[in-house]
Queue: 2 jobs
Job 1
Amino acid sequence: MGVGHGHGHGDSAAGHAGGRHRWRLSVSFGLIAAFFVVELVVGLVSGSLALISDAGHMAADVVTLGAALVATKIATRADSTGRRTYGSYRAEVFASGLAVLMMLGVAVYVVVAAIGRIGEDPEIAAGPMLLVGLLGLVVNLVAMALLRGGAQESLNVKGAYLEVVADTAGSVGVLVAGVLIVATGHGVWDAVAAFLIGAFVAVRAVLLGREVLAVLGQHVPAGVDIDTVTGALGAIEGVCDVHDLHAWTLTSGMNVATAHLVLVEGADGASVLRRGQLLLREQFAIEHATLQVEGHRSAACDAVTW
């Protein structure tokens, strides 16, 4: 009987997806924080609900990006307590959860405010609204370009990226509303744009929330089929059975698995361990794998899962 643990180590910041893209979060945070102040002031002066609602979403972005920056710092910091055996990598997942809550909160506020304006035709200063909407679009496009490079690797960066995508849609909505107000002379388009922005933000928040819950619920990593993994491990020469198999995502880019491999009589346990770890790493992108080899089936745990 033996246990093997396969994984790749090195500099924690370099090996952690969120840490590698921290500079993208930093630059985006600076851009959006500066623009938030501009948009809020102009929104209050012009009376535009679309601008104020988009500024509220920008405020959520500032908080979310700030939390993401803190999370990536915490996630790459060595544990000095000896109690966090998995490190602090889950910090980025919690930051993504905060992004979801912030997005949903802003969406509810915007939609309720927009509905409250039904039947009204407020006087809106379309000129400042168009100017700020255009400036916001430029800022968001720059931030999108920065964050897109890390969104596929880090759930934390993806949360920030989706926030900026929603902001970009908000800027487009502000511009369209401004043009319609100028063309028709009716301020109702401001509330319509605000409602659509809120609905879009809510949809993006729900989609990201599902991913966050999947990680916290320790679901099988995206793109990995547990039956396929079982079959592949069972096909290794010297293995007659696979049980107690679990696979989950610790944080973005860090998939983890454990399994018990039952050996055929006379099989080389060390060789089976090496092959199993290599298979999980190369075929399923699971570098952190803890495998236990057994000379016979254990009565204590003979199922593939719990």
Note: The chain has a mean pLDDT of 80.
Job 2
Amino acid sequence: MKLPLSGIKVLDLTRALSGPFCTMILADLGAEVIKVEPTPNGDMIRQWGPFDHDISVYYLSANRNKKGIGVDFRQPEGLALIKELVLKSDIVVENFKVGTMEAMGLGYEEMCVVRPELIYGSISGFGSTGPARDWPGFDQIAQGYSGFMSLTGTPESGPSRVGTAIGDLTAGMWVAMGVLAAYIERQRSGLGQHVETSLLASLLGLLSVQGQRYLSVGDIPQPCGNVHPVIAPYGTFDTADGPLNLAPATQDMWVRLCEVLELPLLTTDPRFKTNAERMQNRLALKELLETSLGKKTRSEWTPLMIKAGIPAGPINTLEDVFVDEQVIACNLVETVEHPLLGMLKQVALPIRMPATAQGSVRSAPPLFGQHTEEVLAAYGLSPEAIRELIINKVVFQST
């Protein structure tokens, strides 16, 4: 069975994390993605540690299933070549600073005159309009600006960033969805369009009930750590050997939790009868629950809770995660051969469908300039033209 996006040509003019993550999703689903990197050093992310034998693991995390070429953006011949590739592609994805594509003569408005069916996907830090349009787009800045950090952490710690670059990653996901929606629309109208998001917009799009709390009733949520902002008990609790997540989200689950913990009197205690009362007395309740939870370990409590219909689970380290039976059973890690690193493990595409049954990781993240000659030939350049571009250092082909 063919992959869903087979036959779709994507020109990847992105760097760092948000754009490459977007195009990796498209590549995982079968699109032909050509990653264009500037000479002499390639994508800036190649310089970010930690490193696996001098290769950035940041780069490895977001660039599989692509073909890579090196082009000198500073030479007119290089920009002319990129323009030619743009006009022969279905989708172009970029995450330059606002206005950069236009300054290079590659802006959507100019390109769509020549190729009306072209689809552009653009990611910026703060959007293409407004007073912050020219601000550089870095994830932690956007996490703070969007209010996301104000929801994370504890009253003692204050605001805290999320442990991954969630603004970058979700911006990439939003644009991947947007350009696919635009491609479906193109099937009907024959016309492309410009799809945009920003790190700021992507994070506001994830505020969910917290954002609605403010918009509807004016509440300004505060960081509440590992407890649920509106349900109690719900969060992280200490056991005999470490923390356990518990999520008894309904009144029935609360009663069953008290049964499992052999604390039946709590269900009639006036401090804890309803969720509203439990919220008011959250700290006292936590202390009582942990007195009982301290009698067993996480691995002992988890099956007891699950059997009683109470969502529960340990807080794993990544070492725990990647040897976990459930993770292994769901094939959430796949292996591909890398030309320098040998067998390379990768976190798999988390989408399952018949077309992806054989796995999502088909080729390793490319070396800088690994496929330049191959790609340019496929786009119609003659061997002589390619050789001249290499000699004049307009393009780079790795050896």
Note: The chain has a mean pLDDT of 96.
